[in-house]
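step 4 of 6: structure.
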Amino acid sequence: MEKSIKISVLVLLCAFLLMAGMLMHNEDMPDSTPMDDYFIENGQVQTGSNNIVAAIVFDYRGLDTLGEASVLFGAATGVLIALGVKKSG
Amino acid sequence: MIGFVFLAVIALAAIGIYAAMFKRNLIKIVVGINIIASAANLFLVSLGYREGGIAPIFTGAESLNMVLATPQALTLTSIVINLAVTALMLSFAIMIYRHYGSLDALKRRLKE
Amino acid sequence: MSPIVKNVAVVLVIPITMFGLYIILHGHLTPGGGFPGGAIMASLVVLFFVAFGKEWAKKINKGILFFGESFGLALFGLLAFLGLGTSFFHNFLANSDSLFGMSIPFGANSGFLWSGGIIPLMNIAVGLEVFAALSIIAVVMFLENGKVMFSEKENNVGGKK
């Protein structure tokens, strides 16, 4: 009983993903490009960095990276607290 | 018509959801969640692909037809966060094994 | 492990460290950056675990690693706050002709190391943080032995007795 419910949920999810994939745009033509065209045209002159991905990660969208670094810090601290303490006592 | 990359994304997501739903071993569930995350990463990168584009790096670039850079940056963020979440999930699995002596998701519930 | 593995691990210290530092320092010129470079340098620690075992892993001071992690994150945040005269995460060193302040024209070039403003400094900070964080995770998970007996820990989980 429980297994049949699970299987039907899985089949429904796969069908939904397939239909959503049918509605997607063509895979070598992005929908909207003005923001990335701006980054590619001006990023090198504004930040002085050849690597546009690095310019976006550390400059234009630096707040995202700050959150990401905080998440990594929190995960390492969590692992240290969960497993790194003395077992007995 | 559905593209080849989206078919790969759907296959990866289906495999990951299957592993996360049907497997009882906690380590296998973690592996399934990782496969779902890699499906999301592949989907994000494929959203920004331009035909014939090169990586958005000007060092030794042959043309100026570059793929979109923002999806790649966000995929970098997503990979690192996925790594952190995986480390936490594995450490919780180790704690559960310490406490209950088993990694089975159902047996753990039936005890006590 | 056997002496062959130990000796090869010792020989590989310099190439892996140099490759990781190269990836970190050239993060604004080539594919890479702080995250992959830190992961490469953390793989050296994992290689040493495989080669030398728990006796070597027990000697690692987790306090120093934790300090490095905190220092990297704090340096990253400090660099973000230093540009606060204009906005948060403002690249105040770019095109200023000081440290990492070389201005480069638009178009393909062969790469200049002294460019990029605060991006290389942030790469170094993030590389330090990722290296320390992954090393902490690897150390803690490696020293964990999975053979903790159920009966021994039954009444003593989650605090002192």
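step 5 of 6: annotate
 - Chain B is about 70% helix and 0% strand.
 - Chain B has one domain: 4-110.
step 6 of 6: archive
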